[in-house]
Amino acid sequence: MGAQQGRHLGPKSASLLDRHPEVDRDLTVALWLGITLAEFDRLAPLERDLWIKKWHAQQVCPDCGNPISECSDPERLWASYRRICYATMERNAAQDAYAGLHETAPFHDGTFTSWSKKRAGQHRFHFSHGVTICVADHDLTPWDPFTTERDASPIPPDPEETSEE
Fold first, then answer.
1. CA distance 100 to 156
2. Cβ atoms of 158 and 142 closer than 8 Å
3. Where are the extended beta strands (E) located within 52-151?
4. How far is CA 44 from CA 34, 92, 146, in A?
5. Any idea what the Cα angle at residue 63 is, between residues 28 and 26, rounded to 5°?
6. Quick one: pLDDT at residue 24?
7. How does the average pLDDT of the chain come out, rounded?
8. At what angle do helices 45-59 and 21-33 cross, to 10 degrees?
């Protein structure tokens, strides 16, 4: 609707707004701020840009990312869909496998090799503390079978020890 709500525009004004949507936006932001377009235009460019950005942010639904005027319309129909991210699917599968390995003894002593059923003494770290499971297009930690071996250490092997073998 814009700032012209409830007012009939002449052909020249309507044509201007049709050809220059930024003018309609500026009118709407000025109205939102409670100032005239002339006052809005006199603001420093950075201040104008910040107000426009803030106004835009308030027009977008934080849940779905659509304009609030559209997503809150009970008459509007929406179609659900799924978007597949195979990298995220792989990461979630690794998280599930990692969690499954630690169901019976979820607490460790910081080494990831000594586990306990209860948080006590040195076993104060939950298996998820400090752990972020990521994905890459190749194995960045081939020495760490963390999704298949409960006692897998995240510490890379010493290159000197592996070269002597």
1. 23
2. no
3. 107-108, 115-116, 125-126
4. 17, 48, 55
5. 10
6. 87
7. 87
8. 90
**Tens digit of pLDDT for each residue in 102-126?**
999 999 999 999 999 999 999 999 9
Of 93, 100, 145, nearest to 127 by C-alpha is 100
142 vs 146: CA distance, rounded Å:
10
State in Å, rounded, how far the first CA of the chain is from the last one.
75
Q: Are the CB atoms for 150 and 107 separated by under 8 Å?
A: no
Structure tokens given for 135: 């994905």
Render the burial of 94-107: b for 16+ CB within 10 Å, e for the rest. Answer: eeeebeebbeeebb
Token pair in block for residue 55: 């106004």
134: left (phi over 0), alpha (psi -120 to 50) or beta: beta
Find the farthest-apart pair of alpha carbons in the chain and give their distance in angstroms, rounded.
87
**0.90 exceeded by pTM:** no
CA distance 37 to 30: 6
Q: Which segments of the chain does DSSP mark as H helices, in order?
A: 11-19, 21-33, 37-42, 45-59, 68-71, 86-101, 159-164
Task: Return d(Cα 15, Cα 11) in angstroms, integer.
Answer: 6
